[in-house]
Specification:
Elements (H helix, E strand, L loop, with lengths): L4 E6 L3 E6 L5 E6 L1 H12 L5 E9 L3 H12 L7 E3 L7 E6 L5 E6 L25 E5 H5 L3 H16 L3 E5 L10 H13 L3 E2 L3 H8 L4 H11 L4 E3 L7 E3 L20 H14 L4 H15 L11
The structure holds adenosine-5'-diphosphate (ADP).
């Protein structure tokens, strides 16, 4: 039997509070790269792909809640660092009377920010077992400069040893000290990327690009040769390779766009890992994202 493909997804998984009627709230577990890891597992038949989540958690009850959520989804937990003095980040979602959602975050002291910070038992080198390593601009923005640079250096080695690096810039201005750093680090990441999964909105917001072509030109100039540009209801566009562009059906009854990009990435990476080409990977990403945005919440049942 062939060994399963191993994918490592790195970042921050948070406690989610969803305000309900009156004074109550529902507790969930979510985060951008985490949502992607969950959806990859949901798409897999049995153990055709092994997915690990790479992060740091605390030893408190909320961290335990996150840990059991990770395990419940069949995701490996042996790349998780545990910190006695830290807890997970938290965010709350409130919906106003017009149905408009707003997000509040408490994540400045989150355990995930201490990933790879010495002393640590999980070192970047431990990721050499993965065939694909996926992280986002959020994963990298939350790390202090020193560990961020250590991770970036490691990604170079990871690629030299045959690993494929996957990146989504997922730009969140509040997580970066300043725009200049955000731009420099993001371009450095693109220059290391084997599979690029940016969204048009994020790239235009960060780099002030005039249009889609300017985004594509900049990415290609950075060395990106494979991936998909996510363009909301217009569907994805292939990066770097000529594919007969399929037209992608827009969804008209959008309920909640949370995790549209994260689920797209999962659909794309699932097909890529199974050996399919770019056109099939884009269609798979678009099909999954289209389902996700027709229901409320980041994680939906897809059977
Ligand atoms: P992000 O959530 O990262 O901002 P997008 O909004 O571009 O990303 O959405 C990611 C993907 O989800 C798109 O490339 C597309 O495939 C799908 N998608 C998003 N909005 C729609 C829509 N209204 N109809 C159909 N597909 C959509």
């Amino acid at each position: 039997m062939q060994k399963p493909i191993k994918i490592g997804c790195l970042g921050e998984v948070m406690i989610e509070l969803i305000a309900q009627e009156g004074d109550s709230a529902r507790i969930g577990v979510a985060g951008d790269t985490y949502n992607t890891s969950v959806y990859i597992k949901k798409l897999c038949k049995e153990d055709e792909i092994q997915v690990s989540y790479i992060t740091a958690l605390g030893t408190d009850t909320f961290s335990q809640r996150i840990l059991s959520n990770i395990k419940q989804h069949g995701i490996q937990t042996d790349h998780i660092e545990f910190r006695d003095n830290r807890m997970p980040g938290l965010y709350a979602i409130e919906t106003d009377t017009e149905g408009e959602r707003s997000f509040s975050y408490w994540r400045g002291e989150a355990a995930a920010r201490t990933l790879f910070e010495e002393p640590c038992t999980i070192k970047p080198e431990a990721m050499s077992e993965f065939d694909l390593l996926y992280l986002s601009g959020i994963s990298i923005a939350i790390l202090p400069e020193e560990t961020r640079n250590r991770l970036i250096n490691y990604i170079g080695d990871f690629r030299k040893n045959g690993g494929k690096f996957v990146f989504d810039s997922n730009y969140r201005p509040r997580l970066w000290g300043d725009t200049k750093t955000a731009r420099e680090v993001t371009m450095q990441m693109w220059s290391l990327t084997d599979i690029a999964l940016p969204s048009l909105d994020d790239e235009m917001a960060l780099f002030n690009d005039a249009n889609e072509q300017a985004v594509l030109n900049r990415l290609i100039q950075a060395g990106v040769s494979h991936g998909a540009l996510k363009r909301g209801m217009d569907g994805p566009k292939a990066i770097g390779e000529a594919v007969i562009q399929e037209s992608f059906e827009p969804v008209t009854n959008v309920v909640d766009t949370t995790a549209a990009g994260d689920s797209f990435n999962a659909g794309f990476l699932y097909k890529h890992a199974m050996g399919e080409g770019l056109a099939q990977a884009m269609l798979s990403g678009h099909t999954l994202a289209s389902k996700v945005i027709q229901q409320s919440g980041a994680i939906i049942e897809i059977e």
